[in-house]
What we know:
Elements: E1 18-21, E2 34-39, H1 43-58, E3 62-63, E4 72-77, H2 82-101, E5 106-111, H3 117-126, E6 132-134, H4 142-147, E7 154-156, E8 163-166, E9 178-182, E10 184-185, H5 196-200, E11 204-205, H6 208-220, E12 225-229, H7 246-255, E13 260-264, H8 273-281, E14 288-290, H9 298-304, H10 310-323, E15 328-335, H11 342-355, E16 359-364, H12 382-405, E17 411-419, E18 426-430, E19 436-440, E20 449-457, E21 462-465
Parallel strand pairs: 1-8, 2-3, 2-4, 4-5, 5-6, 6-7, 9-12, 12-13, 14-15, 15-16, 19-21
Antiparallel strand pairs: 10-11, 17-18, 17-20, 18-19, 20-21
Helix pairs in contact: 7-8, 10-11, 11-12
The site of iron/sulfur cluster has 10 residues, from helix 5.
Amino acid sequence: MNLPDMSKAKMRNKESVEFIYTNPLVTNEFSGQKYFIKTYGCQMNVHDSEEISGLLENLGFESVDHENDADLIILNTCAIRENAHDKVFGFLGRCKHLKKDNKNLKLILCGCMAQERSVVDEIIKKHPYIDLVFGTHNIHELPNYLMNLDSGLNIEVKSNEGNVFEVGETFKRDSRYVAWVNIMYGCDKFCTYCIVPFTRGKERSRRSKDILREVACLKEKGYKEVTLLGQNVNAYGRDLEDDMDFAGLLASVAATGIERVRFVTSHPWNFTDEMIEVIAKEDNIMPYIHLPLQSGSDRILKLMGRRYTKDEYLELYNKIKSRVKNAAITTDIIVGFPNETEEDFLETLDVVQKCQYDGAFTFIYSPREGTPAAKMDDSIPLNVKEERLHRLNEIVNKYSNMNNQKYLGTTQKVLLVGISEKDSNKLYGYTETMKLVNVKCDHDLMGTIADVVITEAKSFSLDGEVR
Ligand code: 5AD
Ligand code: SF4
């Protein structure tokens, strides 16, 4: 095991990244065996699970929908907040019982929690029945680990930050129409509350030629939409010599002619005018931007290490709104950062009132061991934080509903991607602005972009018809 020392992570050297092109193992070694994968957390984890599933199916494994039917259970974990951690250990308890009934069942824990020293120590002490723990830096080595698994607990966690592994199109993608495409890994921002720079390592960009090849290949296979993925996509290319920046990459991805291009997540710091111009100019770059605010108070933003002020954020927000026609903007907000006062919180509400977001993911601050904020004293009781979250959510929901009402009676281009869960006569899909729409239409329209008339607007979704 080779975990980074969290206290030293900020001093990482900037030596150049090595690109390693690998051919994943293909064999029938595990033919007939079943796997179940449970994914927690962000889109990055969802996409990592697509890679893990692809690697397993190359070995002969078949997927099942329930853990009870599996010979191999994988928990792809998230470390961003304490409740993600609690859910994983709750699920592990159930898996332990399954192991009592099926001695051959193998249990694997991977993802961000595996990169935390304290979690690995907890596993060694309390959960030695797990067969394998591997981290976020060595997913591509999973076939090798499975072929050579020793009895007992195997720990394969690395702080292998110097490499970008290109594994080719080994992903078992969840959708045939929309695809995630990693453009970079890791994060160098070190927001003081955030564990990601420790669990995902330093910023490493993929080469643009590899990204563009992947997008072209997806287009060829009939994919209609790609979402470019990174913890902080604006930083794309800064670690590469002689390659594009994010504005250049966006323009090049748009030039492949794929019908829809999206990206997450962009930090408000370093969101360049060039980026805004490319988004405004290219019709196939969708007018939807997730722009995390975190707090509206300059004092808290400084303590969070966010590198912008309330006014700078609002200026950027207004620039995007005025340049990108009909842009929808969503955000992330944390309430209850250590010693957040009522005045600080009111500054956050003020930004929400000014921006009238299309939607917001709101969280109560959760201390993460090893981060600078976790060492700060905090005098704000939990009930005050909960009450602030409640007040914030009321306003956020009001604006999300208000924005949705504007769609009533309009015709929207909706990419139809699945059968509606509530009503199997309907398909669901997304507008260009990322609004979820349930659509009464012929199922033959699946995978197409349809003109949909919006017949009803609710707080979190729209209903529509193809006429
Ligand atoms: N506590 C609460 N929320 C957090 N986030 C990141 N770290 C924490 C934390 N320690 C939130 C931020 C981020 C989103 C993905 O999760 O709002 O943008
Ligand atoms: Fe975490 Fe900040 Fe990096 Fe986002 S930009 S992943 S919040 S450190």
